[in-house]
Amino acid sequence: MPSNPSPTPALRPPAGVTPNFVNPASRAPGVIAATAVISAVMLLFVLARVYAKVAYARSQLGWEDTFCVIGTMLSMTIAGVIFRLFRSGVGKHTWDIRDDVFRSQADLLATSVRTISTVYNFAMIFTKLSILLLLHRLFGVTRRAKIWINIGIAMTLIIHIIGAILFLTVGAPLDAREPASYGTRTNIIGIVMTTINIFGDIYILILPLTEVVRLQ
């Protein structure tokens, strides 16, 4: 009798690597734990901020508070999509997943990639704008501070709207059922966006410092 053919990996493994379909290594536990802890801490601080302003300061929430809450909700949405992905088996090397299993989950993976990429950019928009609007409230009395803060707001909107469009078009998988469609372009866009984000975060960090050092 002919023997059953060996399962085919979803992606050709590197030279010298043998696919492991039985008990492959997975990053899922670590990523799930880190995401859960960070999300819980984030939610705790946001709730404390809202409670302190409403209950103790007895003032209405400003635009910076509203944008902070929206950014938090979008970040929690990303965490939920990540949890769903890992529950479906994501986290292993692609060559440790059988081709038939990968293709059966292709639609979920493609939808999740698009969702995370899009929601991430809008989460960054609302989160950074909440900080910039707070800086505008604190330091917006001077014309120079207003200009630099408005530049930061414009840069944030332009960068992340372009980022969302790139992820949905150039970075989206051409064929959801082909493993080779994932990775390269999305990774390149991710590296570029991460680099720009670092400079953007430094810019936001420097803004209040330049005003504080001028205080009499």
Could you please describe the fold and organization of this structure?
It contains six helices and no strands. The radius of gyration is 22 Å and the shape is elongated. The longest helix is centred in the middle third of the chain and has 34 residues, at 106-139. Helix content is 69%, strand content 0%. The chain is mostly helical and 216 residues long.
- Find the structural class using helix and strand composition: mainly alpha
Number of helices: 6
Mean pLDDT score: 82
Query: Distance between termini?
Result: 90 Å
- Rg is 22 Å
Which residue ranges are poorly predicted, with pLDDT under 50 across at least 5 consecutive positions?
A: none
Series of H and E elements: HHHHHH
Strand residue percentage = under 5%
Largest sheet: none
Shape: elongated
Total count of strands: 0
Helix content: 55-70%
Structural features:
216 residues
Question: Can I get a quick summary?
Answer:
This protein has 216 residues and is mostly helical.
SSE layout and pairing:
Blueprint: H1 28-56, H2 63-87, H3 99-104, H4 106-139, H5 143-168, H6 184-212
Helix pairs in contact: 1-2, 2-4, 4-5, 4-6, 5-6
